[in-house]
## 1
Amino acid sequence: MPQPLLVPPGDACLLKDFDPGYHENLEREAAEAETRKHCEKLDELAYRLFAEAKRAVVIVLQGIDTSGKDGTIRMLAGGISPQCLDVASFKAPSDLELSHDFLWRVHAKVPAHGRIGIFNRSHYEDVVVVRVRKLVDKEVWQDRYAQINAFEKLLHEGRLTFVKCFLHISREEQRKRLEDRLKDPKKQWKLGPADLDDRELWDDFTAAYEDAITKCNTPEAPWHIVPANKKWYRNLVVARIARATLERLDPHFPPFDPTLLSRLS
Ligand code: AMP
Ligand code: MG
């Protein structure tokens, strides 16, 4: 992947340094064929992770509205057997969730050993939308970066691997996608006036994401900036990252016991 996808930990993330339209000059068909190969391999690796049952992976998907979180999940879920997969979507918190600390509902959805979790939004909403929409005081969200780093370190030490992906689209691309949805009776339901208000706050969301990526970009849980203007290239990049992560973990089947067969009556 020639365009760097990672921000070196400690460096400030400036999203304008990452081209959301980047696609390696690949053609769609070639990219889709490569994605299918990664998905086949992912299925095998996920099955080994499931059999081993000692470690877990969570793929965190963040991005502005219409950045392609649902489509990315469709791609990953098409590749991995459902018995190995847990998908969790984080919406505006309920009264019960709000009566706990902000990580409570997230911790409850962390995948068990052996499983791959996909987070459609995550605890990062608590330093992004919550900050932009001024849902809590600045002193509260400012402390959350350190709390998130401590939380992710705890989970990492509990043998969970984080794969954090920011799906990066341009403002023009978002306009096209919103227009598409607004015109289509099968898609308009996904949108409400709040989504159009959020678009007005594009610069504030960008600043909040840049801060979150900069402050919560640790060696144990780094951020990947995924060029996402082209849906097929976004899928390819996420499939590559997921496969590389599982290959690094190299999960093993439990030891084979040759004596068991002789006990078969
Ligand atoms: P969607 O992903 O389109 O179904 O929308 C979910 C909505 O929930 C988005 O507008 C998010 O910004 C919002 N949301 C998710 N988590 C939080 C949170 N912790 N606090 C406030 N809003 C949130
Ligand atoms: Mg929305």
## 2
Amino acid sequence: MSEKDQMEVNEAQIAVHWQEEDYYYPSEEFKAQANVNDKSIYDRFSLDNFPECFNEYADLLTWDEKWHTTLDTSDAPLWKWYVGGKLNVSYNCIDRHLAKNKNKTAIHFVPDSEDEPIQHITYQELYTRVNEVAAVFRDFCGLKAGDRATIHLPMTAELPITMLALARLGVIHSVVFGGFSPSACADRAEDSKSRVLITIDGYYRGGKWIDHKANADEAYEISKKEGHTIEKVLVWQRHPEKYSSSSPLVDGRDYSMNEVLKGYKRVKVDPVSMPAEAPLFLMYTSGTTGKPKGCQHSTGGYLAYAAGTSKYIQDIHPEDVYWCMADIGWITGHSYIVYGPLSICASSVVYEGVPNYPDAGRCWRIAEELDINIFHTAPTVIRALRKIGPDEPAKYNYNFKHMTTVGEPIEPAVWKWYHEVIGKGKAVIVDTWWQTETGGFLCTTLPGISPMKPGSAGPGAPGIHPIVLDEDGNEIMPGEGKAGNICIKNPWPGGFQTVYGNRERYIDAYYGQYCKDRNSKDWRDWPYLAGDAAVVAADGYFRILGRIDDVINVSGHRLGTKEIESAAMNCEEVAEAAVVPVAHEIKGKEPDLYISLKPGIEATDELAAKISLRVCDDIGKIARPRKVWLVPDMPKTRSGKIMRRVLGAISNKGDVGNIMTLANPEIVAEIKKMVEGE
Ligand code: WTA
């Protein structure tokens, strides 16, 4: 049996062994107030009405010029939505709300420390600040529509303000997760050829001051070595009145944003009217091969999809207070902290800190104080909260009507705890399955009309038509109990446009497997391959089983195994590296790193620590291996491929299966002994 066959059998077995869960229903009270409480929405968004059905989402926005073509497939599979239309994202997220809602809070910024007051930034204040920052980008940095800028900021209000200011000018932003290393930041700045890097002196997390500015210095140097020069580094000050980093500002390159802004008080910048298909941002994501892919998202299609799904699936109303506890450095934060909620004039919470600081009650105190009623987080956080403070939520008087889970499959037991304890048995849950590439939700229930099923992401979102295919492209029917590759039959406005600067990679990775005619201009010939394994139940609900490729999902964040392995290989002592995911109670998966050393190098604890550090330095702490195993050799096929499946089974204390086809079967027992002895 080939490695691939073996994997498929395993996935299928998982599916068969899983029991169907009971339905949970939304309350009458919830249904009555929901933005969608009529099942006819699925007819409106049926394939018969495609693509015009998606005009309903575009109509939620304010356009400078209306589109003439809803979907242009002439350059398939690089789809163009709302062609002919023009709009500005910052105008849609701010200016258009001023007439009626200027005094409404746009962003509640909750600092890490409970001693520091929460900032309630109104739409009017956001307008003023975004204009001033846009003026700095335009007049001080010379940025204009189509240029790229890299942002390496943590969760402070300055992050959405910076994004919106760039969007006001039509400058394409690329946000790098604040916890990522200088080299990750440099790679992204280099790939996007960003002339400007925006960072901050430091920030707080879990009670600690994190000095952040030095990361920019290093990123600058690394990027320079890669042949790309960052011209200006703009540094926000966490405490506006003083510069707080121990790394000084470099003359002629680094500028304190807060100082520069003093010269742009009350300056207004006209929003630049952008074509719907102009790129709004890049978001880099890990794939199977080494280099992260810059997913390029559009202006009109992306914003329409973020707005529509925020209204219909997040069910946000004008009076709601909405808290998505993701990081804006990931796609969830882009779509469902910043662009979706602000485009429909919501009040959105930006929290600097961590869920368990100073104690397990922190989230619930924030929820109580701000009277949050819509809550959005990931299974990894739910598991952690369940572990550290299972009874905490009951001590606080907050009321969620709606809760979201996103990022990885949620175990039914964890779902039920989320529902009963955090949701106090009342809140509806939407389990939203989607990806960086997809801009917004793909599978989810509609909170006001669909029953929920723990562990299942539900049917396709309105206008999204998923299908499960086997390796040969045959459809696996609902209720068959067999796992396959989940695909989306049709394009949708939120889908990314391409991999930045790499059209071939976009086509190969997402359409290569199932497109039968690469010259076709008919979207029906281009099913989108998500790269996840899934089973579809008889009721049409999809259960996602995880990645079919070798990406490791740690705490809801995707890490490429190749990226981790190549970081380890940067240690000169390392001969081979193989990373496998290990199940972890809280994080979902953790990377276990197997290393074989070059001949003559001694395996020591110091060396293992050095390799681990190297991975953290190159990628970020999030990639820290659970354990670095220095093994005498890797289990390999006869053609020399490392058998990650075998290593994975050892790490997860599972059955290694048939190993007799290996070139060196004897090594398996040796590695097993080593890992089990630990
Ligand atoms: C996984 C995050 C099960 C999936 C929005 C997907 C999920 C990858 C779910 C994308 C969910 C995300 N249930 N699995 N509700 N949501 N995933 O790009 O494997 O960071 O392909 O986007 O996370 O991760 P990404």
